């Protein structure tokens, strides 16, 4: 699914924020990415969703070497990856419906199909009554659920989420985690960056732990 | 009018407010330049057609210029194939023609004036002017044939120069439009950089993003272009009216036919298409440099 070999990342001429990161995630696996603030979790996710290029090393996604993949081929790869951004990055001028529909529109899905799928998913994340609302009128938790809905609407093969439960209460956090687990059962590989150690322990999936730019992989163990 | 929902919030740009005005101004100028070109082209054609169908025979007073010579000249002209009519301009008519320049007082009988014969040629007639002049000089030594060629050539040259200038104005307008759209599009790309990155990350092709900028440029171009055309119409009408009121037989009428109006009506569409293509190419080129 995704493979990192001796990957290093530095911003400009600064020190390496990721050093010799090597791991491989199997299709259909579920992982938490943990580590202290500034440990490089977001940078690692950015490398995984191709928003950054590594300073060194090899990244292979869906069997393709990212470094040699042409710009024209990148969108097709990106459509197989769903991303929940830490700061949501929703389109402020679009309705909740249009925000969630965006990945489908970009992929050229038919309108009738978009209508059905988006409505169903918005109901699932509890936003059916807010379909016409724009993000600035929604609460932080509602925006987070909207961002999650946008990330999963196209049923990605790989789901990357950066602190997806940071703005919701425990009950909603568990509900969203169950959504991720449902997706995982359908074959989606899931990587969730989080500070919530309780959640990590409770769900017991394997853990990628970042410490000062170095990665350690630990098998999961449910509490 | 001419708006649609876009994934990028392009309609909120300040560019959306100034670009249609700028395009309206460009189209206004280009409609005037183009109308001028079409009208001049028409004038040149009509002059050429009108003048090439006529000749003037002049019999200098120094050569005698009496009635006898005039009759002989008319006889030669009437017997020449290709000449439809040959009409002698009598003294009264000649004086009327000269009055604006010399005044009525100066036109005494003592002023030596040439005798003029106005000759109309048959359609498509090809007269050998030099041979005709030799034959006329044989019967009237002071006779000279003027086919208006030199005068006409100067006028046509003048018109061609003005037409070339109008064309240059059009080219500059097109270049200025392209430069404006490129600038506006680049600014738009910078403003919406964040949203464009999100679109990329969820799998949008460059062409998907370019299409949004291109269709926006097309709509703004059409809106501005139609406004510019509407502004230009009263101006053209005003120039036409002014030309008609000034015209004292010297200038042919300034008028545009249905074909000309169709071309002018198409100018906003052409400018909008230029704006659309410029926007698309700018986005594609700029995004190609991004990750």
Please tell me about this protein's structure.
The complex is a heterodimer of chains A (223) and B (291). By secondary structure, chain A is α/β, with parallel strands linked by helices. Chain A has helices spanning 41-48, 74-78, 96-106, 111-124, 140-152, 170-185, 197-203; strands at 2-10, 16-25, 30-35, 56-61, 64-65, 81-84, 158-162, 189-193, 206-211, 214-218. A six-stranded mixed β-sheet of chain A has the order 6-7-8-3-9-10, with helices on both faces. In chain A, strands 2-1-4-5 form a four-stranded antiparallel β-sheet, with helices on one face. In chain A, α3 packs across α4 (111-124) and α3 runs parallel beside α5 (140-152). The longest helix of chain A is centred in the C-terminal third of the chain and has 16 residues, at 170-185. Chain B is of the alpha+beta class and 291 residues long. Chain B folds into two domains: 10-48 and 152-287, no CATH class; 61-141, no CATH class. Helices cover 68% and strands 8% of the residues of chain B. Chain B has eight helices and four strands, in the order αβαβαβαβαααα. A four-stranded antiparallel β-sheet of chain B has the order 2-3-1-4. In chain B, 30% of the residues are buried. The model of chain B has no long low-confidence stretch (mean pLDDT 82). Classes of the chains: A alpha/beta (223), B alpha+beta (291). The interface between A and B is medium-sized, with 26 and 19 residues.
Summarize the structure.
The complex is a heterodimer of chains A (223) and B (291). By secondary structure, chain A is α/β, with parallel strands linked by helices. Chain A is built from 7 helices and 10 strands.
How are the SSEs placed, and which strands pair?
The complex is a heterodimer of chains A (223) and B (291).
Chain A: E1 2-10, E2 16-25, E3 30-35, H1 41-48, E4 56-61, E5 64-65, H2 74-78, E6 81-84, H3 96-106, H4 111-124, H5 140-152, E7 158-162, H6 170-185, E8 189-193, H7 197-203, E9 206-211, E10 214-218
Parallel strand pairs in A: 3-8, 3-9, 6-7, 7-8
Antiparallel strand pairs in A: 1-2, 1-4, 4-5, 9-10
Helix pairs in contact in A: 3-4, 3-5
Chain B: H1 15-52, E1 54-59, H2 67-79, E2 83-89, H3 91-102, E3 115-121, H4 129-139, E4 143-146, H5 149-191, H6 193-201, H7 206-246, H8 258-287
Antiparallel strand pairs in B: 1-3, 1-4, 2-3
Helix pairs in contact in B: 1-5, 1-7, 1-8, 2-4, 5-8, 7-8
